[in-house]
Amino acid sequence: MLNPDLPITKNSEDILNRSTFANSLAKTLLQYSFSSSLTIGLYGEWGSGKTSLLNMVLETVESKDSNTVILRFNPWLCSNSKQLITQFFKQLSTAIKLKKPKNETAWELIDQYADLFDAANMIPGAGTIISAFGKTLAKEAKEKNEQESNDLQGKKDKIITKMRDDDIRVIVSIDDIDRLTEEEIISVFQLVKALADFPNTIYILAFDYNVVVRALSKVQHGDGKEYLEKIIQVPFEIPAPCITDIYTALFSKLDVIFRDFPADKWPKDIWAELFQFGIKKYIKSIRDVIRYTNVFLLKYDLLKDETDPVDLLALTCLQVFDPFIYSNLPGFKEFLCGDDMSSSLSRGKAYEDELKRNVSKPFSSNEKITDQEAVNHILSMLFPKVKNVLGISYSYGRNYSHRDFFVRNNVAAPECFDRYFALALEKDAISTSTIQRFIYEDSPQELEKNILEIYQSGKIIRLLDGIEAYANNRSLKISEERATAVITVLVRNWEKFLDPNDASFLSIPFSWRLLFCVDPLLEKIDSGRRFQYIQEIFNDDFVQPSTLTLLLQNFERQLGRFTDDSKPNENALLSLADVLQLESIFKSRAIDAIDSKSVLNSANASSLFWMLQNIDPDMAKSKKASLITDDTSLAKVISACTSRGSTLGKIVVKTRKVDLKYLEEFVNLDEAYNRIEKFVATDSFTHLTEDEKLNTILFLKTAKQQNKEDSFFDGVPEDALADWLEQTKH
Fold it and tell me: Within 13 Å, how many C-alpha atoms sit on residue 148's CB side?
């Protein structure tokens, strides 16, 4: 629940242990009995709790003496000096009438007094006569106003007599004086000093001492301090709250916000560091506590499942107390997120210098920054990459691990950064709850449905990143049952997934992402049952041979087979005997795919032939020769020998290239060229997929231009291929 920045109204709400002071002051007020008025000043800066203390004092008075008339007058609600004077006496009249209806004469006299001010349009007692519009009265009206002034004094004398005779005790509290204009401030003190100095009347004036002294000095053209001392008989400085009580109030409010957060998952060390070296330096009053917790609550309600709570607390601290820093952070994502300085050093001194320059420039000492040391510590805690740059060496800190930071939704993980500032998930992001349900809860049917929906929404990469991160995090437990369920849905559907980032210059090969997820999940399965499960996958008709190729290649590589690195991995998932059995199953599945020509519809056909050739070279050669039976199958083979990529210039350009040397293992290139040249003019060509058409045109346009020994050329931009394809239609 949001906490309004409002003063407390009861002693029972006091969390700063000020009730003792309030009770003592109330006791003093009740004992006062003099023929004149008494003015008490409560001095305190903005946010120091003046109004709260006033409320506690008046509550105590009301509970101990029901006869005392209490008027809570707020001059801030009056629009001008004239209205301030008139409204004060009108409200005083009403207060006496409500408390002492039998003292009719007293409140009637005060009401008439107010009417005289309204009619006279003046403020006596200050040495000058002031019009409602701040102008000097016309000469011809001076005599009349003097008469009205005499009437005012006479009426005031009657009020004084009546209040003394009827023993009417009044306590007037006037708050927010320091929020008035300079003219209105002087009017309040003129009111107390000259107009309402009634017997048995106590004024409690609450204001910022320095603000009022400056205003009085300007308006009075003199010493504002001296003027104030003539009016205030009993000055009180608001007792400063114990800082421990303020911290206790902060912790109490945060406890309510985090009431459902698992205690065993709370990062105690990181929170302790944030509070000690960051938040503690900013929280100085209850008002600070309220502002901070209110902003945090709004952000936490929106993103509590998608952000790290301590990271969000840290950024909220900067947002509330050092907004200049907070507003600059979104523009420096590249330099804030990722590895720490030690890893950046491997990239060279130039990168290190660039990092220091870009990080230090916007966050160096600046007049707009409230606390530079706190800023540096918070940023170094949030972003380990800049710890050394900002000169923080005494921090517990956090060592950056992308997988761990991603799982915890830390702001230093690039995928999570933007949500902290946008207050919403990134366009291509998947909620943490969705990833967790996928890994821990969804049934096989739900897994199948959800993974296809996620792919169609363009978020498959984020899902795979999430699975990988969770699977590799040793502190997170994933059962064998859940591991096998996730692996099964991945491998059964992998052939359906086209690489969404196939044109990204620096993107990780999409096929690797399957292995990044599967390998750590297979480790969750007991080694004695692991091969049996993998064998079931290889015999699963729903798992395409192209996917089996990726899996088998991975297992072979771990054993040092079919790779330049012949050294086996000591942590290999399967034994050699196990892998040899898988080779047999794969060979049978691959031959069936070739014979049915379904392999030509696979995005990974070339890898399948590569694996088959390593297992059985003669069989592979025979199957390659049998694969091309017509021009359509030739075009599909050409497509299987074509890869996609990109070139990096001013922009990233999608490209395609055909491996002519590999294609020649299937067909004579000259023969293929002659056949394709005629084929593109036939109806059969139009039945190919768009990708197959582009790949066929690529071969036709480039085969004669390339040296067979140099078949891996830079590639042709896809835009050019599309133009060539369009020309064939005409």
Answer: 19
The pLDDT of residue 615 is 95
Residue 628 in tokens: 């091309």
Listed residue (574, 533, 571) closest to 552, CA to CA: 574
Strand partners, 42: 206, 236
Helix (H, G, I), strand (E, B) or coil at 334: helix
Other C-beta atoms lying within 10 Å of the C-beta of residue 138: 10
- Residue 143 Rama label (left phi>0; alpha psi -120 to 50; beta): alpha
Q: Is the Cβ–Cβ distance between 438 and 463 less than 8 Å?
A: yes
**From the centroid of its chain, how far is CA 168?**
58
Q: Which residues contact 276 (CB under 8 A, 6 or more apart)?
A: none
* Sign (positive or negative) of CA dihedral 295, 308, 270, 371: negative
Tokens of 630: 């017509």
On whether the CB atoms of residues 718 and 656 are closer than 8 A, the answer is: yes
Per-residue tokens: 207 = 């204001």
pLDDT at 362: 59
- The number of C-alpha atoms within 13 Å of 335 and in the hemisphere containing its C-beta is 23
Residue 382 is which amino acid?
Answer: L
Q: Which of 80, 103, 75 is nearest to 91 (CA)?
A: 75
d(CA 279, CA 290): 13
Q: Would you say 700 and 680 are in contact if contact means Cβ atoms under 8 Å apart?
A: yes
- Burial grade of 143 (CB within 10 A; 0-12, 13-18, 19 or more): exposed
Element (H, E) at 717: strand 716-717
What pLDDT is recorded for position 321? 93
Cα 277 to Cα 23: distance, rounded to the nearest angstrom: 37
Q: Give the Cβ contact number of residue 630 at 10 Å.
A: 11
Distance, in Å, from the CA atom of 624 to the CA atom of 360, rounded to the nearest integer, reads 60
Dihedral angle computed from the Cα positions of residues 101, 105, 111 and 116, in that order, rounded to the nearest 10 degrees: 180
List, for the chain, all residue ranges whose pLDDT scores fall below the cut of 50.
Answer: 4-5, 122-141, 143-144, 341-345, 502-506, 708-712
Per-residue burial over 294-324, b = 16 or more CB atoms within 10 Å of its CB, e = otherwise? bebbebbeebbebbbbbbbbbbbbbbbbbee
Contact between residue 305 and residue 325 where contact means Cβ atoms under 8 Å apart: no
Secondary structure (3-state) at 178: helix
What is the rounded CA–CA span in Å between residue 261 and residue 656?
51
Q: In this structure, are residues 312 and 425 in contact, taking their beta carbons and an 8 Å threshold?
A: no
What is the DSSP secondary structure assignment for residue 423, as one 8-state letter?
A: S
Q: What is the 3-state secondary structure (H, E, C) of 623-655?
A: HHHHHCCCHHHHHHHHHHCEEEEEEECCCEEEE
Residue 430, classed as helix, strand or coil, is coil
- Tally of CB atoms within 10 A around 151: 15
Strand 69-73: give its sheet, edge to edge: 69-73, 170-174, 201-207, 38-43, 234-237
**Token representation of residue 627:** 């694969």
Q: Is 409 left (phi over 0), alpha (psi -120 to 50) or beta?
A: left
Q: Are 240 and 210 in contact (CB under 8 A)?
A: no
211 Cβ partners below 8 Å, 6+ apart? 178
Number of H helices, E strands in the chain: 36, 8
- Convert the pLDDT of each residue in 370-383 to its tens digit: 888 899 899 989 99
Q: Mention the CATH class of domain 11-237.
A: alpha beta
Between CA 386 and CA 381 the distance in angstroms is 9
Distance CA 282, CA 313 (A): 13
Per this entry, what is the length of the chain?
A: 730
3-class secondary-structure state, position 183? helix
The SS3 of residue 267 is coil
Distances (CA, A) of 372 to 87, 188, 360: 48, 41, 12
pTM (two decimals): 0.65
Q: What stretch(es) of the chain map to CATH 3.40.50.300?
A: 11-237
